[in-house]
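Take a specimen:
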Amino acid sequence: CNSSQPITLNDSRNGVEYLSLLYPLGDDEHVVAIAMDVSARNADARALQRSEENLRHLTDNLPHSYLYQIAQEAGESRHFVYVSSGVERMFGLTQKTVMGDLSLLFQRIDPAQMPAVREAQARALDGDFHMDLRMLRADGRWGWIAMHSRRRPGLNENGQIIWDGVATDVTDQRRDEDLLKVQARRSAALLNLPQQ
């Protein structure tokens, strides 16, 4: 046996989990053994795994929405650090695809809005980004996507600006608002008709 590489053994007895490291001394008859109670560490690791799984399910199951995190280094373009799977339901693009190329989402924005988007992005360097974007959805129709992100204070450990955000399909709400405006105009017009 190579004396520089320990033999690792995992064991559980009477509800206690142990990690044992055996260091052979080279004569195949003697070893140095270290045994540690790792019950708490393993329980913490399982709890963290469950928590991460719950958070992933929560973010992936948001109705008509997806969560995202965008990073930008000084003078560089922005890129996704994280995007939940709702992006696929909304735009038909996988998480992996969008993570690799943010421009695929920008290509779905109504070109007439792009100057306003660039202006809002420039303002977001000092704060938040809020904008309703007219975008081509997975079903091939234009819809309205409310994009809201908040800049974290300072820079992360890689010197990047980070925004945490949510994108929500608000097409139905925008349509309902437009219908209410039309109905209000009709009602106002009817109220202004001369009485006979």
